[in-house]
Design brief:
Two copies of one chain form a homodimer.
Chain A lengths: L16 H20 L3 E2 L5 E3 H4 L4 H6 L3 E2 L18 H8 L2 E3 L4 H10 L8 E10 L11 E10 L4 H17 L5 E7 H10 L6 H8 L1 H4 L1 H9 L5 H12 L2 H29 L6 E3 L13 E7 L6 E8 L13 E7 H10 L13 E3 L7 H13 L4 E3 L6 H10 L4 E4 L2 H6 L1 E6 L5 E5 L3 H4 L2
Parallel strand pairs in A: 1-5, 7-8, 12-13, 12-14
Antiparallel strand pairs in A: 2-4, 3-4, 5-6, 6-11, 7-9, 9-10, 10-11, 14-15, 15-16
Chain lengths: ~450, ~450
């Protein structure tokens, strides 16, 4: 018999009972919200063909995809004379499948595959794990959950507003106010950098994207060093120092009124539909170089370096990789793992979340088991959580277990009770006891 | 830009909105049940170290484990002179992780790893996907869900009875009566074959295990051919032709009274606790050669070759692989995928499961969007599912969408309604319409 040290794979986690109760609490809030906004759940497999995934996340992203070995003799198609130094070429031969890296590319694949059965606009939510072969470190895991909503096949600004509404509803529900919704628009950025006659402004975006991590000052320093016209640098820096409302009017003054209009509309509608002033325009918001083409949004915690807890935006080309063109999409992703930490740090979980067992039957011996089973079944018919203690240990030991498991009531049915056809129910919070005739139990249970 | 054909990885599935509603329906029944019996959820990662998984499923099982390639240059530790013909040796070097094959071995790893934090008996449920590199075929997938409950660290017969109770509760809940619970006991088998002085009776078990597939007659033929004493063969065959109650008394007569006692107790308690006579003893029930050591159970559909929908048993050695000895466990697994087919074939899903959108706001133009957002938010505050149609298409087109999406009510708010500060709500089932003053909406919504 082999004897193995029990251990988790690096970067993965178990979740125990209390962890799961907390995670379910947050997930159920999100699910309820998503449904109210008429997003419905779909599910895609953990495994996708590698060809579906690669090429979508940039070279660095592609390296973080977990590849799955082909079954059987996966080496049979590798030529024996091939040098083993060239692992990247061999990978393509020995691995055709991979674990999904996010939920967006599988969504695009799903939409393209089912285009004829889908009624557009297609609004779906998906709460599933994704996997990344990242170096594990504190708070960064190789398996983690994403909670995504997307609208595919609609260009309506209704989606932008609803995404922001959902964000506010969520924070309202978890009773956390100290957050900020920053929005920007790739269309504004494109026309702004077009105005400056900058064809390739990716390096500027990379610098701006780091603002949350390195701070405004360092961003300014790096922009000053860029090899572009001094006048352009001056304009960029001026915008960075303006507050959000000033930036938008400055951009209008620069002649970008039509590009700015949509973002202004979004901000206005947020205010008129009663959202707080916590929505602001942020000219430096980039959200990576990824696939966004219009509206982008990110939510962070005020006065903290917590990182963003929600993010997303509008993209026009996601499904085109799969041959489905001219379909606009918009989506946001709630970072479950960060939200869990946020809730833990701010004590946002309800107090009695770990209340689990309502009734524990003490065990006075095998001759009573039939009775326990029958009585427990009555209590369960009233949706109570009932456990029958498994052994006729000493009562002291059984009560210690009851305390450990934080049960509401202990049920006592032994020799005396059987004779008198009553059960004794002990309230573990108050310590009070009550005799209940067997045939009155269902009246007692509310 | 690459253009890829959108396709699923072989043996995997997407689930659309209606699929998910149905799956959630079944899962929520199981979850509610498991909780009532004081099983609580834990979650383990999809990825485990390969060393944790292999060696537990037999040689054939091990071959069905999906291996994950190490990140980076996974070949760096493979000697360039190594023959590529020997893929099994190379696998150990280039792949250290794998996808879980079931939920039992991860549970054993979890219990061994967390032994000091767990209060025993430990009752957990787990509803998660597992992966097997099996040849995909009709109804057999490479990614599928298992729904497991286990009790670890208790030898009490309470667990056996409760497992059977849960099975009955489940079928009761889905309103399906045509099932049969077969039980057997590895202890009975061990002492019976011991009595016949058969040291290795694995080949008999293999034959018996095929009974559901090949039928009793072929089993009898194969047993006749076995190279064991004629008298032993006669006894085995006699048992196979007896009905379940006769078998047990025959086994008692053979001197196995003490081994049989527990199974008799279980059957008696099932009857006294009000379960139907659908629980029967089946001498030929084997459930593979796996790790079971005592009670085994399987549920199948009467008069069909549907295969088993639930199965499990008691095992004493599962955690010992991880150095945790003398811990008894018992568990059953509900096969979600089979249950889904069973429910579909027997029309067991509630009729209105696909009722999803309560209110659809028709869209009369961008100038009304703020109003729609505000009104929708009021309806959502009453937990209604509300969609705002995304474009100001023709009303006809919007009504077609409303019909496709099977909405309950259509909400009309255009020029006239804005003037009169009323909304028009059309009941899509009855066709009747009602004018509601804007400030009375919340009274109207129940």
């Amino acid at each position: 018999m082999k004897a193995i040290k029990p251990q988790l794979a690096s970067g993965t986690r178990d979740f125990n009972q209390l962890d799961m109760i907390k995670r379910r609490y947050v997930i159920s809030i999100l699910e309820r919200l998503f449904k109210k906004y008429s997003f419905f759940e779909i599910s895609t497999p953990a495994i996708e063909n590698t060809s579906t995934l690669t090429g979508n996340y940039g070279g660095d992203g592609d390296k973080l995809i977990f590849n799955i070995l082909n079954s059987g003799n996966y080496l049979s198609k590798v030529n024996d004379s091939v040098s083993l130094k060239n692992y990247e070429n061999i990978t393509k031969v020995i691995s055709k499948k991979a674990l999904r890296y996010d939920l967006s590319v599988p969504l695009a694949r799903y939409v393209a595959l089912n285009r004829n059965d889908i009624t557009f606009p297609f609004k779906r939510y998906q709460i599933q794990p994704v996997w990344r072969a990242d170096r594990p470190q504190k708070g960064r895991f190789r398996e983690f959950y994403q909670c995504d909503i997307d609208v595919i096949g609609s260009e309506s600004i209704v989606s932008e507003i609803e995404m922001i509404n959902i964000i506010f509803d969520f924070f309202n529900e978890i009773k956390f106010k100290n957050f900020r919704v920053r929005i920007n628009s790739r269309s504004i950025m494109n026309s702004f950098f077009g105005l400056l006659k900058l064809k390739n402004y990716d390096d500027i975006l990379v610098i701006l994207d780091k603002k949350d991590k390195v701070g405004l000052e360092q961003v300014v320093e790096e922009i000053k060093k860029l090899n572009i016209e001094k006048s352009s640098i001056d304009i960029i820096l001026r915008l960075l120092y303006l507050d959000d409302k000033e930036v938008l009017s400055e951009l209008c003054d620069l002649g970008l009124k039509s590009s700015v209009q949509e973002t202004k509309n979004i901000l206005d509608m947020c205010l008129t539909s009663g959202l707080s002033e916590n929505v602001c325009y942020d000219f430096s918001l980039v959200r990576g170089l990824g696939y966004y083409t219009g509206f982008i949004v990110e939510v962070d915690i005020i006065d903290s370096d917590f990182g963003s807890v929600v993010g997303g935006g509008r993209y026009d080309n996601l499904t085109s990789v799969f041959g489905l063109k001219d379909v606009s999409g918009i989506g946001i992703s709630f970072g479950l793992e960060r939200i869990m930490i946020l809730m833990e740090e701010n004590n946002l979980f309800p107090k009695d979340l770990d209340k689990s067992i309502n009734y524990l039957f003490l065990n006075f011996g095998d001759e009573y088991i039939s009775d326990y089973i029958g009585l427990a079944s009555k209590l369960r018919s009233k949706n109570k959580v009932v456990e029958i203690y498994s052994k006729s240990n000493s009562i002291k030991k059984q009560m210690i277990y009851a305390n450990k498991k934080n049960v509401d009531f202990v049920v006592i049915f032994g020799e005396n009770e059987k004779k008198s056809q009553k059960i004794l129910i002990k309230n573990m919070k108050t310590g009070s006891q009550e005799d209940i005739p067997l045939d009155k139990i269902l009246n007692f249970i509310q």
